[in-house]
Design goal:
The protein is an alpha+beta fold and 77 residues long. The protein is 34% helix and 13% strand. It contains two helices and three strands; from the N terminus they run E-E-E-H-H.
Amino acid sequence: MGNERTATVSPRWTRPERSEDGTYWHARLVRPEDAGALDCDAYGPTEAACVRETVRQDRVWAARGRLSEGDVKGAGE
């Protein structure tokens, strides 16, 4: 289909790669030290699922940053 989009990760993540045995996809934070207490790896059964997990983790990371700055309302958005 011509209207399908390829999912991409934010610049914080490496491009997802398929595992050697082909059973899952894996992306890593480019700078693991930026993870704080959060996970620096994302996994998924498909490339798209792996990308969705990186997006989820980016949202958690952003909310955590807002909380550390005292923005409780903004962290929930």
